[in-house]
Amino acid sequence: MDQSPIPEGASVGDALRNTLDLARLADELGYHRYWLAEHHGTPGLACASPEAMIGPVAAATAGIRVGSGGVMLPHYSPLKVAETFSMLSSLFPGRIDLGIGRAAGTSASVAFALQRDRRQPAPDDFREQLEELLGYLENRAPATGPFRRLTETRFTSPEPALLGSSPQSATWAAELGLPYVFADFINPEGAPMTAAYRRKFVASELRVAPRIAVAAWVLCAPTDEEALRLSASFRMMMTMLYRGQLIAVPPVERALCFLEKEGIPMERLPARRRIIAGAPATVRAALEALAAEYTAEEVFVVNIMYEHAARRRSYELIAGAFGLSSTANKFRV
């Protein structure tokens, strides 16, 4: 799951070109999916429109599935999302995923600026939006409401999934029969929520059995010590975010100096976040334990690093630790 980080001194274009390069590498290494995140108004993350990057990433790769991680549906018309992802699915049959999220992906002021109608705050109608979107993807008009006669459009459906980090998202995914992707990198206490999702799951036209993926912060290097050192950039970036300061991804040495001045062991920063950082054997053991904790069939690896070469190397080492190849693996990363 790529957040398209912008290293200090680099441009948005540099970061997006790094995303294309990393996607090609992931495809060559045998990763199963490559998802693009949505963030707005931040100097440290380049991708404000995953749907704009999915096409270039899919065109630059051969077999890996490509999708959104995710589209923040409250900002958009469900019909527009359905049309966009139907186009992508038509261009790249069997390879497009639509991960759907509820979070703003930004500050409250930027979220308000994204609204079409600024006369009043947007209503909290995510469940209704989601059901409308799923109706389009299943080529059935909404049962009620002003769009119930909208039957003239036909869609080529991507594979949908619901993203979340709260009990409410787990409930909705279960009720609507959707795959569920839990953001452990946001909330490391989600195992009870995925367990509830399995218990409450209702089979749907899309899926007859529950499916869970967990997304985790993971940095891999040749040694545990080097992985911890490389994680300093992200730790500083997130610590500053908690203080209301948005920054680009800082160089490792500057981040190490910053964290040393904090007077708290680096491993404990940022607070309330789980970061898996280590050598290949360390990372494999931690990811297998994480998948077991969540009873997850898939794991998404998320990381933010200053050096693109180190980020490439991290994914190479993880692929090697799991013996990935271009063929499907039982344990998907």
Report what the structure shows:
The protein contains twelve helices and eight strands. It is about 40% helix and about 15% strand. Residues about 325-330 have low confidence and may be disordered. Strands 1, 2, 3, 4, 5, 6, 7 and 8 form an eight-stranded parallel β-sheet that branches. The protein is globular. The chain is an alpha/beta fold.
Short structural summary:
The chain is α/β, with parallel strands linked by helices and 333 residues long. The chain has twelve helices and eight strands. Helices cover 42% and strands 14% of the residues.
Helix-strand layout with pairing:
Layout: H1 12-29, E1 33-36, H2 50-60, E2 65-72, H3 78-91, E3 96-101, H4 108-114, H5 126-137, E4 159-164, H6 167-175, E5 180-183, H7 191-200, E6 212-220, H8 224-230, H9 232-242, H10 252-262, E7 275-278, H11 280-294, E8 298-302, H12 308-322
Number of strands: 8
N/C terminus separation: 10 Å
Percent in strands: 5-15%
- Helices and strands, in order, run as HEHEHEHHEHEHEHHHEHEH
| Range of helix content | 40-55%
Describe this protein with a few key phrases.
single chain, disordered C terminus, 8 strands, globular, 333 residues, alpha/beta, 8-stranded parallel sheet
